[in-house]
Design brief:
Order of helices and strands: EEEHEHEEEEEEE
Strand content: 25-35%
Distance between the termini: 29 Å
Oligomer: single chain
Shape: globular
Helix content: 10-25%
CATH superfamily: Mannose-Binding Protein A, subunit A
Number of domains: 1
Protein name: C-type lectin domain-containing protein
Number of strands: 11
Largest sheet: 5 strands, mixed
Structural class: alpha+beta
Number of helices: 2
InterPro entries: C-type_lectin-like, C-type_lectin-like/link_sf, C-type_lectin/snaclec_domain, CTDL_fold
CATH topology: Mannose-Binding Protein A, Chain A
Length: 163
């Protein structure tokens, strides 16, 4: 499965809440981020192939900038599946984790130690994880690396798209 997202932000003089879903068919709108998100059941896709699928739709693998957004994406990404994993757009490059869409990494939810030596692409786990640091929900992991093909993905897309 893949989780991608699109931004629907359009500058206006007076922000208004849409009374309808402004996203393309198959996408879920999130009011806090003004983004559209879609889950793809992309079994067999590596991190790079999942990102390419998102680009075909005009978006990227989802970037996450708050706990609230992480919970939202965990909810739509797993839909009750207690053992699912979903690619997100975080990857290790130039000695730091970066979002594939170029936005700042200002929030993380890694569950335990992060192995940047062998595994450089991140994904979300549904369900809970407990370690010495506490309890984690929708925690991130990178075990298995960028070539793991047992992960679905979330796309975010900007909508409406510029023509």
């Amino acid at each position: 499965m893949v989780l991608c997202s699109k931004s629907t932000f359009q500058p206006t003089t007076c922000p208004t809440m849409p009374s309808y879903n402004p996203c393309p068919n198959g996408y879920t709108y999130h009011t806090s981020t003004t983004q559209c998100y879609r889950i793809y059941n992309g079994s067999g896709l590596t991190f790079d192939l999942a990102e390419n699928k998102c680009k075909e739709d005009g978006g990227h693998l989802a970037s996450i900038h708050s706990q609230e957004e992480n919970y939202f994406l965990t909810d739509i990404g797993f839909n009750g599946n207690p053992s699912a994993t979903v690619w997100i757009g975080i990857h290790y490059a130039n000695n730091a984790y970066q979002w594939i869409d170029g936005t700042a990494v200002n929030y993380t939810n890694w569950g335990g130690e992060v192995d940047t030596y062998r595994f450089t692409c991140g994904y979300i786990h549904s369900g809970y994880f407990t370690d010495v640091s506490g309890d984690w929900f929708g925690y991130w992991d990178n075990n298995g690396g960028c070539t793991n093909t047992q992960i679905t993905y979330i796309i975010w897309v900007m909508w409406p798209q510029d023509v």
